[in-house]
Amino acid sequence: SMASSKKVFEVFVSKIPWTIASKDMREYFGQFGQVKKCLLPFDKETGFHRGFCWIGYTSEEGLHNALQKDQHMLEGATLQVQRNRKVFAGQKTNKEVKES
């Protein structure tokens, strides 16, 4: 149905070290469920990503599994993972993140 396809099963991940690439994120978060989207915004000025990322799952199960895990460690770094409550809408979200 149309209604169910509008549901968003996303986590917002922050405190990502610059050594970690999009494919590492997709691989790591793929252990919890099928990843539909992995968005790791890059900063054109620095050439590095900005240290935060959106991971979207195809189902609520993936989201639930990712949120159940106590500590997310990747390459020795502890990632901060929370449920994404705002639907990502392009550049607007970047501005909101800076202001908070």
TrEMBL record:
Record flagged with keyword RNA-binding: yes
UniProtKB keywords: RNA-binding
CDD domains, per database record: RRM_SLIRP (cd12242)
UniProt-listed Pfam families: RRM_1
Domain RRM: 9-86
An annotated Gene Ontology molecular function: RNA binding
InterPro entries assigned: Nucleotide-bd_a/b_plait_sf, RBD_domain_sf, RRM_dom, SLIRP/GR-RBP-like, SLIRP_RRM
Domain of life: Eukaryota
Coiled-coil region(s): none
Protein name, UniProt field: RRM domain-containing protein
Organism name: Oncorhynchus tshawytscha
